[in-house]
Specification:
About 20% of the residues lie in helices and about 30% in strands. It has one domain (about 10-110): Ubiquitin-like (UB roll), CATH 3.10.20. Strand 2 and strand 3 form a beta hairpin. The chain is elongated, with a radius of gyration of 14 Å. It is α+β, with helices and mostly antiparallel strands. The protein binds zinc ion. Zinc ion binds near residues 40, 42, 43, 46 and 79. Zinc ion (ZN) binds near residues 46, 76 and 77.
Length: about 110
């Protein structure tokens, strides 16, 4: 058993390795705004769209499930992107519940 902090890399790994559970709710609560398009960094072809998704963050004894997380996902390859603010929010929340000794925490993301 070794202690380690959940790092930003872990989150990116979680996202990259496809552990973002695909419960996309298309265009809700974010209306389609085509002017805010972003090209996918992986396939370089797809455009990304705004979705809400469920992010599961696991460490040895703690699992954080955050629902209704605003993210962008590539229409072509399905790569999901979280912005930096969201990433650090998830990390902070995971650290808090780990410190509190909670094993599984399910939360709905609410913008501050
Ligand atoms: Zn892509």
């Amino acid at each position: 058993m070794f202690e380690r902090k959940i790092s930003e890399d872990d989150v990116r790994h979680v996202v990259r390795s496809g552990q973002v559970i695909e419960e996309y709710v298309d265009d809700k609560p974010f209306p389609s705004r085509e002017e805010n398009q972003m090209k996918c960094m992986i396939c370089k072809q797809g455009e990304t769209k705004s979705v809400t998704t469920t992010v599961t963050l696991e460490r040895e004894e703690t699992t954080l499930v955050m629902r209704l997380v605003p993210a962008r996902v590539c229409k072509n390859c399905g790569e999901a992107y979280l912005d930096d603010k969201m990433t650090s929010h998830l990390l902070k929340t995971a650290e808090q519940i780990a410190k509190a000794g909670v094993q599984v925490e399910v939360r709905d993301y609410k913008a501050a």
